[in-house]
TrEMBL record, chain A:
<comment type="similarity">
    <text>Belongs to the bacterial solute-binding protein 2 family.</text>
</comment>
<dbReference type="InterPro" id="IPR025997">
    <property type="entry name" value="SBP_2_dom"/>
</dbReference>
<keyword id="KW-0732">Signal</keyword>
<dbReference type="Pfam" id="PF13407">
    <property type="entry name" value="Peripla_BP_4"/>
</dbReference>
<dbReference type="InterPro" id="IPR028082">
    <property type="entry name" value="Peripla_BP_I"/>
</dbReference>
<dbReference type="GO" id="GO:0030246">
    <property type="term" value="F:carbohydrate binding"/>
</dbReference>
<dbReference type="GO" id="GO:0030313">
    <property type="term" value="C:cell envelope"/>
</dbReference>
<protein>
    <submittedName>
        <fullName>Ribose transport system substrate-binding protein</fullName>
    </submittedName>
</protein>
<feature type="domain" description="Periplasmic binding protein">
    <location>
        <begin position="37"/>
        <end position="293"/>
    </location>
</feature>
Automatic annotation (TrEMBL), chain B:
<dbReference type="GO" id="GO:0005886">
    <property type="term" value="C:plasma membrane"/>
</dbReference>
<feature type="transmembrane region" description="Helical">
    <location>
        <begin position="98"/>
        <end position="119"/>
    </location>
</feature>
<dbReference type="Pfam" id="PF02653">
    <property type="entry name" value="BPD_transp_2"/>
</dbReference>
<keyword id="KW-0472">Membrane</keyword>
<keyword id="KW-1133">Transmembrane helix</keyword>
<keyword id="KW-1003">Cell membrane</keyword>
<keyword id="KW-0812">Transmembrane</keyword>
<feature type="transmembrane region" description="Helical">
    <location>
        <begin position="294"/>
        <end position="313"/>
    </location>
</feature>
<feature type="transmembrane region" description="Helical">
    <location>
        <begin position="126"/>
        <end position="143"/>
    </location>
</feature>
Amino acid sequence: MKRLASLFLVAALAVGATACGDDSADTGEAAKDSYKIGVANFMLSGPYFSGMDKAIAAQAKKKGNIEIVSTDANGDAAKLAANVEDLLSKNVDAIIISGGPLESAPAALAAIKAAGKPVVLVDRKFQTGEYTSWIGPDNEAIGKQNGEFLAQRLTSGGKVAIIKGGPADNSIGLARTNGVKAALQATANITLVEAPDFGGWSSDGGLTVMESLLASNPDLVAVFCENDAMCLGAQRAIADAKKTEQIVIAGVDGQTEALKAISDGTNYLVTGLNDADIIGAKGLDRAVEILGGATAEKDTVVDSPMVTKDNAKQYMDKGAF
Amino acid sequence: MTLTKDAPRVLAGRPVTLAHGAIALVVLALAIAAVTTDAFLTQTNLTNLLKQMVTTGLLAYGMLVVILTGGIDLSVGSVVAFAGILTAGLSSGLPLPVAMLVGIASGVLFGLVNGVLIARFELAPFVVTLAALTTIRGLAFVYSDVPIAPEDESFFWLGSAMLGPIPLTTVIMLAVFLAGGVFLSRTPAGRSIVAIGGNAETVRLAGISVRKHMLLAYTISGFCAGLAGVILASRVGIAQPSVGVAFELDAIAACVIGGASLAGGKGSAVATLGGVLVLVLINNLLNLYNVQSFWQQVLKGLIIIAVILVHRASRRRT
């Protein structure tokens, strides 16, 4: 164990040292016009995150003379740390971290810091301040927005179910659920039912959890899911149980299929749009600004507009992820 | 498949008591469920149980066949994802039944490749199917890195059709188990598969091709996984390339709860179906009792260990 730890330390030092060396060689050309930017994705397997990766690459292409090196950690924080170290050894000018809980891998953060490279976070914010800039949504606000919509809609009250995604993305989900709860707990005669099991952020997970919920709570009037993928599965379960007239649905993200369901006037009523295109593009812009020597804002919240039947078309045409 | 009084003491290469054990477990779980929670014996919940058995059930039968040979198939979860997303993708251009058949066929093909590598090149099943797990998962993402939601309502039909109170998909799964049970215990090919797991050398000496039957076993597992993928995509209405992670674990657990031996040669279709039921019941009950998800994982693991210990004890007694 000790040996492993020291090995790791040596490796981290080595990475830091080489990066430092290259850095000193670079001094003098303060603002280059071509950059190599590394993108460390936590998990490309969700449409939101793969959309983010594509948006960053598209924005880089639009700007020209920016080379993007993209990596995927498959949802594994340790792999993410290793990927960051790989990117540093490829001598990138800046790193964009998408959706990753890298604060659980302090060695990687230390390596970035030692290398003196700027790091821009998109989507997920770290609890520690060890980053240059962050651009992402306010997840609690999205939840609150949904909760207020439901409170207004459910005039005669009733049982509202909450489907959570689970540990893979817990801080984000928690913020969303807390937002919904904050808005609905204040509302008279609404009872909240939290599904005991996680929906795993996927449609099949949402389907199964909804089926179980319907068995123990046949009198639900609404369901909130921490993301759209789970809501889409829940919508099928509700349709199979022939309760489409009884239960309305609220999600988060703005996944294409959810926007379509909302626009079609189904029982899917509302979602909060987390626009990966906008966040990704802004993230790249931010990295380039910082490389050009500008002092950038530390934290930037990107609005997550509420999408209902009235405005769903407009966001669909824009071709969100 | 019926266990009459004068049934042979050994059915499909394992003691009859295993099937009895599995049935007793299911009955016990059902009794506890019915007595302790009102929500259990509702039609909604029973239909849920039947629906939620299907994926694990299909995968478990395929896994059983492979386990009987002494092998393992870790790639089934990835095959579920690939078959589902391929079917959903093709359904926009091809007639739905054709798209579904192609989806299932992709599973058969993957199984065949696994089988060739394991039987012909004598590579370890664990390694081959572990490599297949990541390769096929990657291919699913290559095919489409975003979920595909077919517009055509008929895509949902297979997943939501009901035959009276029983979901069509459950009937399909039961048919697989029925045919599969007969295959394993009554046909020469099925019996050879069981025998290979017992002692491959003896089978070889008896003049039966071990390779051919190993190949067949992995192909059957691939077929089951392909079918499960197509059914799951239709049930959810959206095919996701990320679906099915760790599905192989539930399938293996179902076989083991049903008394199958990972060393091969021991296990039956009926007992495995019992294992699937136990597994689905555990999930269902923990949900009805409102047990929080992390504790569900803990309890599920402990229950599986307890069941295996009981199996072990009863096997010693006989």
